[in-house]
Batch of 2 targets.
Target 1
Amino acid sequence: MKLKLATVALGAVMAAAPAMADLVVPNLSYRTGPYGANGTQYADGFNDYFTLLNERDGGIGGEKVRTPECETAYNTEKGVECYEATKGDGALVYNPLSTGITYQLIPKVSVDQKVLYTPGYGRTSAKNGKVFEWIFNAPANYWDGASVAIKYLLDQNGGDLNGKKIALVYHNSAYGKEPIRTLQDLSAKHGFTLTELPVDPPGQEQKSQWLQIRRDKPDYVIMWGWGVMNQAAIQEAANIRFPMENFIGVWWSGSEVDVLPVGAAAHGYKSLTFNGVGTDYPLYDDMQKYVVEPGKASQGGQFVGSSLYSRGMYAAVVIAEAIRKAQELAGTAQITAPQLRDGFEALDITPERLAEIGLPDFGPEIKMSCDNHGGSGMARLQQWDAEAKKWSLITEFTAPDQEVLDPLIVEDSEAYAKEAGISPRC
Amino acid sequence: MEFLYASEILLNGLMAGVMYALVALGFVLIYKASGVFNYAQGVMALFAAMTLVGIMEGRVPFAHLINAAFGVHVSSFGWTVPGLLAILLTALVMVGLAIVIEKLVLKHLVGQEPIILFMATIGLAWFLEGLGDVMWGADVKMLDVGLPQGISETVETATNNWLGYGFFIDRLDIWATVIAAALVAALVGFSQYTKQGRAMRAVADDHQAALSVGISLRFIWIMVWSIAGFVALVAGIMWGTKSGVQFSLSLIALKALPVLMLGGFTSIPGAIVGGLIIGMGEKLFEYFIGPMVGGATENWFAYVLALIFLVFRPQGLFGERIIERV
């Protein structure tokens, strides 16, 4: 009898316990709420790449990858709850797609020793691996984005922005405020005038800001928006007949959902990006064969190839490569989060490796180290064709102005280290 | 020039106020007829706009569920429906929704405290939000029923010739003003001069008394929720045309709250006047004071303005003063 009971109990425990052998990469996504339309596509791309690896290669190094999804609704408290609920499940790395959630998780992951990967968002100065041991934000951060945008405008103006007027329309949140300091410094360096125009989230009503733009007639408008703020801003720009080719959004203001509702009036709008778009990459043949056609794609694969789907997929590619590197370094397929951190720090995704994955020229080269957790910071520009309803890449990957950015990153990260009592490493 | 620019801001504030008032009207109608603050009014605007786009584009409702259940790949019927006909069909859907709400929710709550009915509308809001997503998908949808958008060149040229400064007025805002004026006239006329309108007001005064004189409470509730559904559709069209049909559309209810606090929960003209004051006040404050406090003042200033009015007139500018003697 005792033996039977013990067998039943053991069976129950085995059924209830997570499959510990899996590599666990929780997907802290948001498919509901004001930013759900954006979060959904990103989460689909993230899930589908790991599904592809599981179906085609049997996982990474023979270990399947699990991506338990937790809905944050882009809400910081819910994001933290999701983190707490999933961290005990053998979670290796988090990618919450929210600067607000990232700020809350930074101290937590440092204590729990989990990796936080925030490509293109989060705390910019986390690039400094000496201070932020567990955070990685390659291939580019907000300050890189601001600098690449200004470099592009310098190119457009024969290298001289002296006397030009640039307006920054930004989401009035931690996220939207990130590029201000950099733009102020770049304004001092290049002699352009910067006007800052905050928009309260969610950002449907922006009449005051765009009336001011109409009156002040800036030469260029740079936008740091998200969700409905993007569509409303592009519509208002069209309403006041602001030239779309002089309107540049950050990468989070450059997806199909931002421009499609505006219709033909959005033609010519530009945005930064650090990943390719469309399905014209060999990887998508496998994605179709192993994920979409067998019906294993997130939401039936309806967003495959969209800007945000591609970015979510790219985040998964970088994580998968870091896992591969960690397995190689640790000599085991079943890695831990500290081993994954080592994998990230030794990561080198060369153009050749990207081509091997089936994504040639999809992103910039990513080479990280103990002190550099942010990669090269390279980004490029894309432009919207309203008739063809697609983005076209209009520049090559461009490096940011490290001469301006590096001191800012050192200053900000050292201030954080002092505040949090962290002794710089490396 | 500064004066002209401030005047332009003021005019645009008034126009924005009309857009807020369109949402506030739906709240007023239901509150006036049933004493219920309908928390779901913003979501009704979203649901109506989603349904309108779905009908116009010939989308198959519940396509995801059908595909998942039967292993098929359906998304569209392959036809499109003209804007006006689609609006009519959506209005019918909103009437159907009103009937379902009455049968499944309101009927069972007759005579209950207003707070119970309010809680029911919170549940309804969450349900409708999910239903809309499941029926039509959560993607951002483009809505084009033929309403013009962009700067009115007539106004710009005329003001330029007359004042030396071309004013910006969005053509969509002009249309919103005309539609709101027509809607208010129709609603005031209906509630004052028709039998059903008078019955509606009687129900608002006292459910039990209205029942005792033979007024069908159920019919009145269906009628009021249908009208509020139609008003939600109009608001959904205006806001959906402006920035696409998506979840954020339901948040425009937050813009209607200060309008209601200011105009009163029971007055249709109050919703309009409240909207105008809020729209004008928040835009002028942003222009004059905003730069001194870092900008982005519009959301919170609307509530501050409403609270100031509330201190002096708790029932709102046009609300009914409630005097209870014990």
Target 2
Amino acid sequence: MIPCKPTLQRLTLLFLSIFVLSAVTVSAQDGKTLFVSKCQSCHAPDMKTGSTGPALGGVEDRWPDKQKLHEWIRNNKALIASGYPYAVEISKYSPTAMDLFTNITDPEIDAILKYINDVNTGVIGGKKTEKDSENGKESNQNAVIFGVISLILALIAFILMYVNSNLKKLSDDAEGIDRPEPVPFYRNKVYLALFAIVLFIVGGFFVSKGMIGLNRQTGYAPKQPIYYSHKVHAGINQINCLYCHGNAWESKTAAIPSVNVCMNCHKTIQTYSKGPKLYDNEGMEINGTAEIAKLYEYAGFDPKKPDAWDPSKAKPIEWVKIHNLPDHVYFNHSQHIRVGNVQCQTCHGDITGMDVVHQASELSMGWCVNCHRQTKVNFNYSDSTGNQFYSIYQKFHDDIKSGKMDSVSVKDIGGLECQKCHY
Amino acid sequence: MKKLLTIAGCAWMITVLPSCGGNDQPGRAYAPDMVYSRAYETYGSTEDIAKAGAYYNERPVPGTVARGDAFPYPLKHDSIGYAQSATYRNPLSPDSINMKEAERLYLINCAICHGSKLDGNGPLFNGGDGPYTAAPKNFMDAAMKEMTEGTMFHSVTYGKGQMGSYASQLNTKQRWMVIAYIKSKQGGAAGAAAPAAKDSAAATTPAPAPAAAGAMAPVAAK
């Protein structure tokens, strides 16, 4: 009995710690995904700088009442209307009202708040990109160390084998036993077979990895005819994405704005002087005013004679397309952003922070399907803002009522059907 | 020797090929003819269609009205048109205007300069600190409240002063919706006692005098 107890204790402890650890990581990841999908389009991810919404670091300490904070996150308009003083005070932060998140659950809010707190206090590394690259470096270093160790071990094993065979030969000679000459290792069939198998596995891994990577353009950031910074326009100056890419709301394509849309503002804004310094991919500094002058060349606009400008004489700027889907894939912007309420940033990354736009997502089929599996559909169609179309899914409504399902995701309403995207 | 060359070639292909394509190259495609569209794309030349004798000038036939759009605006972009526009009325019936959608259009297309509170102080101007140096019109000014919906529509359609034309971003119906939204906000703020402040569609409540005068006036003859 006595030796049994510590083992049992240890086992329980192990199980407990595994349970606790896994629970912590799950909630942290949930908090991050929730924050990225729901909050990050307006709140800065470092939790320390203000953006469309205020910096969120220490938000729980600022709010006098936790329950009210939850109410604010769910429906800030109702809380402001109720006259709660702190809500009224922060509603003055910006004329842009915060979105309503009426469907968010208490555990989800807690996960987000925990993530905010973790990032703010530095438990989770500050910036996402820095953290990722650090992780990458760490695993790279580990790989190098393991590689060196296994090389040394292999060398030692080889030397020992050599020594062993020499000793054997010596002892054989001493005892006068005559053995045939040993086969050198490069003609030894076992070694050759082993080598071939290893080469096949390692080579196969890299070849298949390369094949999968074909036409994946993640990170593609080509040089554009004009250095156009999304960070300056959509980030610092808060121009809505739909101001220029308005077609994304109404049609399949997001559309590239015509020159006259640029000129709506650049008729007046003729120099770049108030924003931060701009750098291209190679780290060369960009003269913003010279880039605006390039626009005037396309537009046929003379800053000295602004009234003489004829928009119909403008030439299109041939922007280089970054996000490209093959012809055999159907993708519709309006279906996602208008019907599905997906934020632009969900697929295009932190576009308001990019000077030079790069493709943030893989845009592979696995990536699409994964999102369709995870994304929940707003089935609350009885609400006037909801989508009446979902009323036809009687079975799902019954299942939700009876508790068989807690939510409906895109996969349940045909998001995984081949012919939804390939036809 | 031949064997060695083959092995070296294979090794080179395995290591070098997948790493091709830096940040400024899109990388290799598995089946390029499926990836890069063969259809006529945005910047594609239409010369060969014209050579084949087909009518194609990238523009709809003159007089085309898009499905769901309002009837086109007849007045010309000149001083006569501008003067006539003062008596032109919004062709949309007030009940048919979805104010929520109109507000969305305003916030995207107009609020960047004219401000989400219609006070002429959007993020681009920002009290003169923003990059946009020309002060946008404050819709809450008495002068702007007196401006008729027709004149506003004329300015949004053709541009006025530093403001460009928004006809490429908003169709005729959407422009009228935005004008109706601005007018309802102006009326709502002026008549503090009127219930219009709550109900943004100020259709049933009496509008302030200038707007009403514009609405009563006969529609300009074509």
